[in-house]
């Protein structure tokens, strides 16, 4: 089917560091699977990265091509998906301003993801841009009229806000936007190697997609396991062990056996970790191959991003002219 007649899918990642297995199972895998079914847009969220990194713009610049390379390595096809830079589509910023007129501060301060990311700071201490990033995210989704958004479950409150914004805009002015739906994967939140509920770039508990086999063995060796298990034959509690959580996600067919052997104390943590490393290498190997094909050719990556940004901007201009018309701001 022609791209024009397909529904749109949009999602993206903050350009704050390399992508990791949490991104892969939470969102990237669905993007790859659905890139042929939907007209797909993938945003490199450099503006949203500034909400926490405004004093380190160099680090955003540094990570930009790495994130793009991660996309290509997992199998995102630039001929099917449009990869683009958020800051280079200024219409998104314009739409954010319009939306921000009818979003209350109260709805943002009670957003559970904002609360957990602001780590106990009071409202008075929060930056305006940080508090408002869910509004900007609503603009990211709507500028291309996306109807589906593959994300991890920390994004659900933001999707709820985006849906409210769309409903409000459509009733205040004219129906311009479809209501976006979150697409939550089978693993909406992958645990970190330190046992934290979320593997995250900013928590230092991530297994990056570009990890070498040696680094992988090292990271898994150091990852926490069931703290109650001291000796090899102590009966384990797989449900509290991140290594078991990874087995369930990355080698589900072998997981019941691991579960049983761990509980019985017949498999030690070292052996269990070895098996995990082998399964992860099987997953990562094709990514390493694709990555090495692009890595030697940074010019190709720049061209993909430039072409994607050009396409995104074209759509953004069309949508914004509809928005201005709907709001009666098309004066001349
Ligand atoms: P940061 O710590 O800088 O916010 P992050 O690791 O949270 O980085 P984001 O760029 O904020 O990554 O998230 C991009 C997408 O990946 C979102 O859809 C998010 O829900 C998903 N995601 C991130 N980490 C995980 C995880 N551990 N499990 C499942 N999905 C995840
Ligand atoms: Mg995040």
Task: Outline the structure in words.
With 332 residues, the chain is mostly helical. It folds into two domains: 3-190 and 297-326, 3-Layer(aba) Sandwich (Rossmann fold), CATH 3.40.50; 211-291, Orthogonal Bundle (Tyrosyl-Transfer RNA Synthetase). The chain has 14 helices and five strands. A three-stranded parallel sheet has the order 1-2-3. Strands 4-5 form a two-stranded parallel sheet. Helix 2 (46-53) packs across helix 3 (57-74) and helix 4 (90-100) runs parallel beside helix 14 (298-326). It is globular. Adenosine-5'-triphosphate is lined by residues 13-14, 16, 22-23, 26-27, 151-152, 154-155, 188-190, 198-202. Residues 13-14, 16, 22-23, 26-27, 151-152, 154-155, 188-190, 198-202 line the site of adenosine-5'-triphosphate.
Features:
2 domains; binds magnesium ion; ATP-binding; Tyrosyl-Transfer RNA Synthetase; two-stranded parallel ribbon; binds adenosine-5'-triphosphate; 5 strands; Trp-tRNA_synthetase; globular; mainly alpha; single chain; 3-stranded parallel beta sheet; 332 residues; Rossmann fold; 14 helices
């Amino acid at each position: 089917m022609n791209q024009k007649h397909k529904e749109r899918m949009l999602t993206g990642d903050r350009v704050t560091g390399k992508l990791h297995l949490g991104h892969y199972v939470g969102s990237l895998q669905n993007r790859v699977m659905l890139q042929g079914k939907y007209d797909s847009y993938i945003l490199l969220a450099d503006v949203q990265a500034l909400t926490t990194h405004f004093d380190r713009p160099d680090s955003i610049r540094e990570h930009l091509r790495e994130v793009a390379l991660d996309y290509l390595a997992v199998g995102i096809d630039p001929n099917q998906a449009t990869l683009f830079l958020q800051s280079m589509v200024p219409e998104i910023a314009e739409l954010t301003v319009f939306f921000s007129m009818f979003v209350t501060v109260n709805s943002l301060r009670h957003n559970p993801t904002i609360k957990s990311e602001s780590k106990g700071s009071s409202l008075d201490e929060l930056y305006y841009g940080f508090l408002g990033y869910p509004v900007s995210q609503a603009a990211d989704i709507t500028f291309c009229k996306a109807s589906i958004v593959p994300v991890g479950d920390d994004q659900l409150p933001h999707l709820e806000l985006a849906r409210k914004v769309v409903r409000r805009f459509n009733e205040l002015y004219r129906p311009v936007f479809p209501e976006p739906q979150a697409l939550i994967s089978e693993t909406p939140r992958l645990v970190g190697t330190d046992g934290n509920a979320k593997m995250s770039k900013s928590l230092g508990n991530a297994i990056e997609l570009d990890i070498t086999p040696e680094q992988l063995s090292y990271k898994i060796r150091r990852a926490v396991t069931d703290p109650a298990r001291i000796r090899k034959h102590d009966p384990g509690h797989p449900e509290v062990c991140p290594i078991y959580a990874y087995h369930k996600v990355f080698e589900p067919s072998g997981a019941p056996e691991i579960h049983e052997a761990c509980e019985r104390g017949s498999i030690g943590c070292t052996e269990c970790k070895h098996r995990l490393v082998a399964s992860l290498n099987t997953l990562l190997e094709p990514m390493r191959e694709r990555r090495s094909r692009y890595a030697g050719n940074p010019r190709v990556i720049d061209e993909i991003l430039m072409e994607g940004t050009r396409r995104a901007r074209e759509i953004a201009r069309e949508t914004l002219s509809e928005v201005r018309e709907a709001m009666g701001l098309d004066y001349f």
